[in-house]
Design a protein that fits this description.
The complex is a heterodimer of chains A (696) and B (164). By secondary structure, chain A is α/β, with parallel strands linked by helices. Chain A has a 7-stranded mixed sheet with strand order 15-14-25-24-23-16-17. In chain A, strand 21, helix 15 and strand 22 (473-478) form a beta-alpha-beta unit. In chain A, helix 2 (80-93) crosses helix 3, helix 8 (323-336) crosses helix 20 and helix 9 packs across helix 15. Chain A is globular and about 90 Å long. The model of chain A has no long low-confidence stretch (mean pLDDT 95). By secondary structure, chain B is of the alpha+beta class. Chain B has a domain at 49-147: Alpha-Beta Plaits. Helix content of chain B is 24%, strand content 15%. Classes of the chains: A alpha/beta (696), B alpha+beta (164). Chain A binds chain B through residues 100-103, 107, 210-214, 216-217, and chain B through 62-66, 68-69, 79-82, 92-94, 117-118.
């Protein structure tokens, strides 16, 4: 803990740690110092001159955003001189800024508007013509209107420091200065839209939200992004049941304000014209639309037959359904239909890690740990592409705490920029390469190890053993693909263990078929696919009766006997567990008439079958999960309040034979995301799509 | 004597009264002959809204939503969209794709007119809004827009003032 310094701001005496900037010290004292270019977490700029304050015994006004506190310093923020300086600064900023607030997308949430209202003079004295250049489109999602720009450099800094992309810069001089993209007239970057969010004025605007509505016209729903496993909170702006934009400006959630292109723009799949809204039943001549009652009755009839034949039904679940749905589905299958053929596409080997670290406290790292740990070891993953939030956290850690980052991958990754050492090895050879890092890692107080899908089975045990030999505090993150991949493992949506990684023996079950075996099995009468697309690149050898719950008519749904239109994660309540094990709640934002949530569909089937499976309401099911599933005995009111609550530990991890060859990451880039990604107009329209991993 | 005085007083009163009548007969009439004749209005009478056009016939409304925000009864519903090179509706980048006013809720307070930064919405003098169906009271942009080319018989209030 650094030394405390006492200073006086506007007559208030406060104590803050040495090195604090005056602008932050004032914030702690409850005094606002206006600023544009200062941004928490980014480097200092001192460009906008809005934060000028008077410091005793200093002849000129000082910029509070670049001035560290000093013992006995006396700062005044409300003297006539300061007030006059702010007015003058705003007048300068507005010399060329067009007064098109009624049309500007930022109107209503514009920092310049707010500042002009609070600190401005109300009238400008400039009568000259305003300098004008036409608006430019840099990419499908980013527009730049140079006259509105106040050159605060926030976008330049977030792109360089936050994302490590460095796609923006400033060109020209004086009144002609403007932000320029890295490819002259267009952008080639992550298309994350952070620059749009961070822009204090309407200079950078979003191509998708453009001229759609105004901020106060939307209702804002905080929910969890349905794409990758990082669990970013995204606040959806909704109007008339339609999602119009997504951002996280309130900095709630584990991601602060970070979102990648998927979280910020790719919600458009929800309102895709091809969304299924009526159940479909196969006839000889193709599909016909049917009522829910008819479809559910038909499905229940076939399920009942399969049950009577001794559980000849298999379930392939999803990595984007909620914990409640996964829990209910496995309960329906195991308890109701007497089958243990239940699986989903596994993308990382977590259970081997849990087995290897059984009985240890704090073996799993949280998202916050990535920001605080003094060492980070990345094994076999292109984090910036596959896990943008984790990469963002690690970059912030490097920037703020000088974390030592070690990268062991098969090709160049963006983390090489900040890495202390980068090693290139063939997939599966990561552990052999580690030995050369031993002495460096041993010097660290603590380490977080992130490993991808190339490290699985016995390799995980070897990794843990090797890390133990370093004799430092090590925590692990098993990298997984999708929004609720972790939850699917935790909820036992697998043939090898029960919820909470309990042994199958507790229910006297034998390990069931994995999803690839289900597609080939002679044994199954009915195959039930919930939100997965296993037939994307395969064909069924022998076609069982196929029920598919899907948003779209995917390759799998096209071969189904009954297709039930399902709701996406943006349309339902429930919880997701992030890759780092944080439990977070979803809130329904959009409305797509006709679709039902997977939980509702499963409970209707259970009802039709006459099964007593307990409540099928998301909140009540979460209560049941809280009571019965290991690791989920968490603070539920916190979850309900929108916090990210770490799950675990798992005291009773079963000893299972890991099906190593079935664990495979889909290796999504920033611009791909399975069947949802294909239906997102934004993801498919950007120039960078589909992108590739290990390009640096 | 008393009788003579009272006769004279009565005569004076009648003369005075007839004087008023005579004077009023010569001054212009205030009686409205509505519905037999069209009523007359003060210029600032707040009747049915008119969405105005600029001198090029483009809609003045830029869909800034400020009227809807100012409306105390939330009777204004707007959907915005962007003008394209092929289809230009308003003079600015954005235009109102949908602009509805629900006259079953409107209280004719004039806040929307005050809020409008482009003087696009003004009160006209239309007041015959009664209908047997409330749904018919929701008027769309097409119902509210000033006809183009301008027609002489559309009574517009004299609000042509320069925005400084």
């Amino acid at each position: 803990m650094s030394k405390l310094v006492t200073l006086t701001i506007d007559g208030k005496q406060i104590q803050v740690p040495a090195g604090t900037l005056v602008i932050n010290a004032a914030k702690q004292a409850g005094i606002e110092i206006p600023s544009f270019c200062y941004y928490d977490g980014l480097s200092l700029q001192g460009a906008c001159r809005m934060c000028l304050v008077e410091v005793e015994r200093v002849p000129k006004l000082m910029t509070a955003c670049t001035l560290p506190v000093a013992e006995g310093m006396v700062v005044r923020t409300n003297t006539p001189q300061v007030i006059e300086a702010r007015k003058a600064m705003l007048e300068f900023l507005l010399t060329n800024h067009p007064l098109d607030c009624p049309v500007c997308d930022k109107g209503g949430e514009c920092e310049l508007q707010d500042m002009a209202f609070r600190y401005g003079a109300g009238e400008g004295r400039f009568v000259e013509f305003k300098y004008h250049v036409p608006e430019k489109q840099w990419s499908p999602v980013v527009y730049y209107d140079a006259p509105r720009c106040i050159l605060c450099y926030r976008c330049v800094r977030i792109c360089d420091e936050g994302l490590g992309v460095n796609a923006l810069g400033v060109v020209n001089r004086g009144v002609r200065s403007e932000i320029a993209p890295n490819r002259g007239d267009h952008l080639e970057c992550d298309e994350c839209g952070m620059c749009i969010d961070i822009c204090p004025v309407g200079a950078l605007t979003s191509g998708t939200y453009r001229y759609q509505t105004r901020p106060w016209e939307m209702s804002h729903v905080g929910t969890i992004c349905t794409f990758c496993a990082d669990g970013c909170k995204t606040t959806l702006g909704v109007r008339n049941g339609i999602i119009i934009r997504a951002n996280n400006r309130d900095r709630s959630g584990i991601n602060d304000e970070f979102l990648c292109i998927k979280g910020r723009f790719a919600f458009d799949f929800v309102h895709h014209p091809e969304r299924l809204t009526r159940p479909l039943i196969r006839t000889l001549s193709g599909f016909r639309e049917a009522s829910w009652a008819e479809a559910i009755e038909l499905v229940a009839e076939r399920f009942e037959q399969a049950r009577q034949q001794g559980g000849r039904i298999g379930l392939i679940g999803s990595t984007r359904t909620t914990n409640e749905e996964n829990y209910f589905l496995q309960k329906l299958l195991r308890q109701g239909l007497g089958s243990n053929h239940i699986d989903h596409r596994q993308s990382g080997d977590l259970v081997s890690l849990l087995m290897a670290t059984r009985g240890r406290e704090g073996a799993l790292a949280t998202t916050a740990d990535l920001y605080h740990a003094s060492g980070i070891l990345i094994l076999g993953a292109d984090l910036s592409q596959q896990h943008p939030l984790l990469a963002f956290q690690i970059r912030a850690n490097y920037r703020h705490h000088r974390a030592r980052v070690y990268v062991v991958t098969r090709g160049p990754v963006r983390e090489d920029q900040i890495a202390a050492r980068s090693l290139r090895v063939a997939p599966g050879q990561e552990l052999e390469a580690l030995e050369s890092l031993r002495t460096e890692l041993q010097g660290l107080p603590d380490l977080v190890v992130l490993y991808g899908d190339s490290i699985k089975g016995s390799a995980v045990a070897r990794l843990v053993q090797w890390c133990d030999s370093l004799a430092i505090a090590v925590r692990y993150v098993c990298l997984l693909d999708d929004a609720n991949s972790r939850g699917a493992l935790d909820m036992g949506l697998v043939p090898d263990w029960l919820p909470g990684y309990r042994s199958l023996d507790q229910m006297n079950l034998q390990p069931g078929l994995c999803w690839e075996e289900m597609l080939e099995s002679e044994e199954l009468e009915v195959l039930w696919v919930v939100g997965a697309n296993p037939l994307r690149r395969r064909h069924l050898k022998r076609r069982p009766w196929l029920v598919v719950q899907e948003l779209f008519l995917t390759e799998t749904a096209q071969q189904a006997d009954v297709v039930l239109p399902a709701a996406s994660a943006y349309e339902k309540r429930g919880t997701f567990t992030s890759v780092c094990g944080e439990l977070q709640q979803l809130q329904p934002a959009a409305q797509v008439p006709g679709a039902k949530t997977d939980l509702e569909i499963a409970s209707l089937i259970a009802l039709q079958l006459g099964l007593e499976l307990g409540p099928a309401d998301p909140d009540e099911l979460l209560g049941e999960i809280h009571r019965t599933v290991d690791g989920y005995n968490v603070d539920l009111p916190l979850v309900a309040a929108g916090a990210a609550v770490p799950t675990g530990p798992y005291p009773d991890v079963a000893a299972v034979a890991v099906r190593v060859d079935k664990i495979r990451s889909r290796e999504d880039t920033l611009f791909t995301a399975g069947s949802l990604g294909q239906r997102s107009q934004v993801l498919t329209s950007v120039r960078e799509a589909p992108g590739s991993l290990y390009r640096g | 004597m008393a009788r003579k005085i009272s006769i004279l007083q009565a005569a004076a009163a009648i003369t005075k009264g007839l004087g008023v009548t005579l004077r009023e007969m010569l001054s212009p009439a205030v009686t409205e002959e509505y519905p037999d004749a069209p009523p007359s209005f003060e210029a600032r009478y707040r009747g049915r809204h008119i969405l105005r056009r600029d001198e090029n016939g483009l809609e003045k409304c830029v869909a800034c939503f400020l009227c809807a925000a100012a409306c105390p009864v939330q009777c204004i519903y707007i959907e915005a969209a962007e003008n394209t090179a092929e289809q230009r509706f308003s003079g600015s980048e954005r235009y109102a794709k949908v602009y509805n006013i629900d006259y079953s809720r409107c209280i004719f307070c004039g806040y929307c007119v005050e809020a409008c930064p482009t003087d696009a919405i003004v009160h006209g003098h239309g007041f015959e809004l009664a209908n047997y169906h409330t749904s018919a009271l929701v008027m769309r942009k097409e119902d509210l827009l000033e006809p183009w080319p301008k027609q002489a018989d559309v009574a517009l209030p004299e609000l042509e003032r320069k925005v400084s």
